[in-house]
Amino acid sequence: MFRKSLSVVLLGVPFLFGACSDEPDEPVVPTALIIDRKSFDFGDWEVGKPPAEQLFTVRNASPGNVESVSVSVEGSDSFTLTSSTCEKYLAAGMECEVRVGFAPRLGGTHSARLKVGGASSVEQTSLQGTGFAWVEVSSLPSGTRVVAGDGSFTCTQPCRQAVRKAEVTLYAGPEGFPAWSAACASAPRGGCLLRLDASKSAALETWVPLYQWEVRRSRPPVTVAPLANGSIVVLDALSVTSLDSTGQERWSLPLSADWKLAVTSDGHISLLRYNGSVTQYDSDGRVRWTYRPQESLFSKHVVADGMGNTYVLTSKVTSDTAQVLKLFALSRDGVELWSAIVNEAHLTFSSGLGVVGDGSAVYVSGSAYNRTEPPPANPVFVKNFVQKLTPAGVVLWTKEVNYGEVSFAHTGDMSSIIKLVSPPGGLQASWTDPDGKQLWSAQTPTGQGPGVVDTFAFPPNDTTAPRLLLGGHELRPGTDTYGRGWFADMGDRSGLVRGSITYIDSPYNDGAWVSSLAYTSPARQVVVGGGFGSSADSATGFIRLYDPRTLTLER
């Protein structure tokens, strides 16, 4: 229904009083701006190159004009708006063009949004592109390789690789101590860190292996001990052998029974036989003297001080129900200087022997049990103990302690180890000062290994502060099968601190383990002896001389 307008004429001019109509106002038609695609991938583009460009078309898909068109790129500075014909006004059905450039600042995947506003809703297109940089390994020593940290490539000779990441870390192999060119920033484990804001060139200038040499043996070493002249003495189940500083055999003597070894400060080698007799050899393998006890003894431990004296701890059965320890000291010429009896209960067993470097004190550790009546009932445990004696064998004090396996340093410090066997292994350890005061007791973090402990040692001379060096093997989860061997510096008087772990893989893929450890002096290289296979069934033994940085380099 429509109504006409009412009007009158005033002074000859019509005047409209008003008009009204039942017709509704026309609806507002929404405007729409459309980009010709919802997404676009620029693909790979080299970092540092002029931008790759792509043209996008914007169309006004609405019946009305759009009065204010705005175009922007958001989300990454690797994408830029390089040109646009999209002015503020865009008539209905008309088109304009936008050009977007992709110039990545770093390698890796980048994304952004092309946004067009001015219509009823904002239209946007997803943008993506991947930046890459060329990484050139310009040189590397013969026999080495360079490996990308993400495993994406390996170079055994100079090479050039496209890397699609913001940064990459290069590592040298085999494991060792690399020196990289100036283009590299330092990274953990001796790596070369490259930030890929442009193509980069790096050189592996020098490389030093973790260990300088390896000698294979038919049996795992029981003891490895360095001499002052740089040679190394090796004791195994079949022989005692001297190796020079390059691992070449100097001499070897066959053995027919269970022996123990100690090296004196003047380079002599004291070998303790199972019956308590001691034979000393010079550094060239010639016999200097032999000491034979006048009574029946069972050998336990042998050590030497910095004065050339040898100390022997034996077990002596005194009756059907009693056993004591006998300790005696031998001069550098094989003369008995003194002896002492250690008797803490009916049955006294030894667990360790130590001597201060200058010979000013001797330490004996052991355990004591009492017999019960009537025999043969099991003995009753009394205590674990440490005893300190003077250079003449007089007891200064005896203290009860709780410990497992024991090792003494040249300072009189003592460390005790209790092995945690279940994978991934670990240990409980304690450290006691020369006066028998416990400085700390700690356990490695649960579930963090580093493995089962097979051996531990202190530096062999009195010019180096005591540090705790441990070695052993891993057990593969859920089995008794050996995995890798390992060794590490595990702290000092200040506490149990797990250092860098060095792992040893078997070339036979049958596991490995570390049976003996020693520091050389004064270079502090690490002599490592062990076996491939397991301690119960070793396929072969080995000896390696490791660079001293092995204990400190993060890997």
From TrEMBL:
Signal peptide: none
Organism: Corallococcus macrosporus
A Pfam cross-reference name: PQQ_2
Domain Pyrrolo-quinoline quinone repeat: 239-366
Record protein name field: Choice-of-anchor D domain-containing protein
InterPro entries membership: Ig-like_fold, PQQ_rpt_dom, Quinoprotein_ADH-like_sf
Taxonomic lineage from the root: Bacteria, Pseudomonadati, Myxococcota, Myxococcia, Myxococcales
